[in-house]
Input
Amino acid sequence: MTLFWIASIVLIALSGVMIALPFIKKKENNDAALRDELNKALYKDRLSELEEETEEGLVENQQELIDDLKQSLLDDIPSEKHVSESAALNPWVVIVPSMLLTIAMSYGLYAKFGAADDVAQWQQVSSNLPALSKKLMSPEGAALSDDEMQDLTLALRTRLHVEPKDATGWLLLGRIALANRDIDTAIGAMNKAYTLKNDDPDIMLGYAQALMLSQDPVDQDTARATLGKLVQRNYMDVRVFSLLAFDAYERKDFAAAVRYWSIMQQMIGPQDERYEMLGRSIENAQKQMGIAPSDAKSVSVSINLAPQVTASPDAALIVSVHNADGSPVPVAAARYPLGTFPRTVVLDDGNSMMQGQKLSQLEGYVVRVRIDNDGNVATKEGDWYGESSAAKMGEAVEVTIDKQY
Output
């Protein structure tokens, strides 16, 4: 607001200068002096004409005409009283009321039509952008009210107008648009964020999420490709696989949907309330495939890490299911990023390794878990591992990694 008042005062001051300028700056020419000079010139011209006419005999009494001419010259001189009254006019009598009228009309019209309250609210909202952004990004982000969402949108648009290369700002604007189901705005904002920072996983995920809601097949293909890049980079976020599962189910690729939902179950574990919901989704997809739920058996493995175990963050977690007789050849296996512990993974027939033998056909089994440090499954030196006790199909098992090759 300080800038507004300074600008308005400057503009009014300029208006005052324009009003006062004609009164303060006197004319260089003087009307009375010009009139006298003109009368003198006319008088001299007329004297010359009278002399010529007298010489030609056209004028009998030259002196009388000259006297009349002088009298006419004197009659054209204004009175001193009139001149003094004109000179006595004070220009400030006009300037001061004009300035007051200008100030009153300017601020009066702005108060009536200038939306001063809206401007003040806009500036206050812009100043609250950091707090609103922090609240949106926090786990309680859903607690933002509709008014706060509108304020945040306004503040973000203002900031992005000034800083159009703020990728995080575009990401936030896209998320708000997604929450409001404004697909066009979401795609536009996410696209700008992705253009500015196409290697940021959060931006890639947001961009894919927006494109998934588009009705354009090209946009949906781009979304799948973007999600595929995240999976290749081992970006283990439940939202990635949720989008992939939803997309696969919509395309009637039920096998892929089951695979993605199973991965989600592995990531969140049975203790999460979403686990059962995902199980129902898997059963529904399997029904669409003609597979009875009772035939779809899986192995749930809870994995813990002993205190003495150390592993590189780039290491891989290899989980294998073997026949209960201790056969070294796995019936099913899966490889995961190391992640955090404790954690739970679930293996099913999709992880089967042997042709003609499915995991669900086992009556009993043991589970072995290994931390592969060098990325080569064939080498075991220095790797940590653990093994479960024998269990029957349908029973969950626990494995503690506490031994080293």
Summary: The beta strands are 299-305, 316-323, 332-337, 343-347, 364-372, 384-387, 391-392, 397-401, 403-404. The two ends are 71 Å apart (CA to CA). Residues 31-55 form the longest helix (25 residues). The CA atoms of residues 1 and 273 lie 51 Å apart.
